[in-house]
Specification:
The structure is a homodimer.
Chain A: E1 8-11, H1 22-30, E2 35-39, H2 55-60, E3 65-68, H3 82-90, E4 94-97, H4 107-116, E5 120-122, E6 141-147, H5 154-167, E7 172-175, H6 179-185, H7 199-206, E8 215-218, H8 230-240, E9 244-249, E10 255-256, E11 259-263, H9 267-278, E12 286-292, H10 299-313, E13 317-318, H11 326-333
Parallel strand pairs in A: 1-2, 1-3, 3-4, 4-5, 6-8, 6-9, 7-8, 9-12, 12-13
Antiparallel strand pairs in A: 10-11
Helix pairs in contact in A: 3-4, 5-11, 7-8
Amino acid sequence: MPILRKPYLIFLADITVGSDAKTGAGLRDWCGVDVIGECRLPQGTVSLGLPTLRPQEAASAGAGSLVIGVAVVGGQLPRTWLPPLAEALEHGLDVVSGMHTRLTSFPELVAAAARGGGQLVDVRATDRVLPTGTGIKRAGKRVLTVGTDCALGKKYTALALTRALHAAGALATFRATGQTGIMIAGEGIAVDAVVADFVAGAAELLSPANDPDHWDVIEGQGALFHPAYAGVTLGLIHGSQPDAIVLCHDPSRQTIEDFAHIPMPALRVAIDRYLEAARLTNPDVRCAGIAINSSSLGEGDWLAYQSSVAEELSLPVCDPMRTGVDAIAHRLLQPMRRQPE
Amino acid sequence: MPILRKPYLIFLADITVGSDAKTGAGLRDWCGVDVIGECRLPQGTVSLGLPTLRPQEAASAGAGSLVIGVAVVGGQLPRTWLPPLAEALEHGLDVVSGMHTRLTSFPELVAAAARGGGQLVDVRATDRVLPTGTGIKRAGKRVLTVGTDCALGKKYTALALTRALHAAGALATFRATGQTGIMIAGEGIAVDAVVADFVAGAAELLSPANDPDHWDVIEGQGALFHPAYAGVTLGLIHGSQPDAIVLCHDPSRQTIEDFAHIPMPALRVAIDRYLEAARLTNPDVRCAGIAINSSSLGEGDWLAYQSSVAEELSLPVCDPMRTGVDAIAHRLLQPMRRQPE
């Protein structure tokens, strides 16, 4: 659970396609107050609309870290990116990466860090000795975002829900379980990168005992219906011992993404399976709402879909981008009722 | 998936309690033809009834590896054990360990290995680059042992089932997923020690496509009802894509072992949950039988329990130690029928 040094300078490398800056855009949108600028290589054309600063300038302006704000296929870090990273380290900034390639595998970065005093922070790695899970109930409340599939808005929903809870006057903390989430929160554990025996234990560590009225809003990972990652999802559920889940879904997907032979579950089935799994460590878990990624639907289709799902499931149905998630936050803050099983 | 060098010399260290030699006893019982002797420290009093040989003598007699055949609390390897391990390495034996402490963390062992040519083999570690799971159907048949809890006979049942299938004239291979199983098979992957994202992929690698009539008998790990390890279990299920499961159970347990707050599931519930999970990658999965660890029951109680469970579930109910598992093997070899759901 690294504690990252903010504020950030976002490195946009040499990308020329806006969607490759997803990580940087997430930082701008969810922790903008912690971002003081952006920098790029001469070949790069993408901007997040932030002030452009060289690493040295950012250091003078009080930045704590240069964060690699782009995701590229395969997660490899090209050597052509090294000069600005070394410059940041030379001037005492940390360099924060969520790439698969470890920063420490580049001797020139290790040397620059030693000279300038900056740290190399690979957010996918954790040096901590993790415990195994206990399943023992902790004080405080927890909500976990879960999904019918990967990559359909679990992080976004958790962040939006944290804001909505704050707006409603509740105590709430976003708990990050993936690389971008960790950069936004400044801390967290990439649960898919820990040794399998310790996933539930890592989730327990991530959402420790808290005030009885405090909500941990835990970023979900994977999906119980995903043939590669369901084990990560189940360990995260058990360790999170959620009082509530929020199910995220994209109605445009007919099958699990990149797995055309695995059908999407029906929403009712997905809710039942998540609650069944979660009851092991929290028998009182309930579903507090549905977060739809409706980017494939026009406004009329969305409204029809929303009301049909709400009627079928008797739950708040939101699109965090379209409607916000206040309805789900209010449901969470209502006195607890058991779902009919 | 290390390929271990047999035959083995079993190292029993300084233990004075027979049950601490469980690993060594498993090797003697399940791959006795590959074991040429045992050795111990002067303080050790436990014997497996094998010829006592010094490492040097074992090397002369053709041994390939010294295997640490004891399990101690915490899994730490004491420095007092190093001299015989170094002796083995000096004489060209590999040293094979399932302890948490890595053999390579001892410079004297690394040096002895370099001098003698032996290898240091930590069976919990894998150097292989593992794939993520695909969920794509492979040729050949697979049976996975699963449990209501950990440590109640999944490895033993899988080994017994492999023998029973061979005795029935079927093609079958035991696939090891834990340290003792790997030592017995000479290869395998300790799935609980891989990075969480790769558990299903490791299980796919472990039971590759095979002849249509060949059975992989896959050693289960953990339990879906275990608050620490259920994620490992689910990843192993999805990657194994079993055609059949065998449920292992110990009727003396009222709660998950060491987790007094987590009740044991009913057998019917356990079967349903395992089949539900397994259908993601094999919709035709069925339960082929129940393997009971009945060591807590006298003969009369066992017979009454066996017939009551068999009647309730309409499945073969065996205790591998008491009855063998021929009834389950025969059920596996029957033409496939769908279970009623």
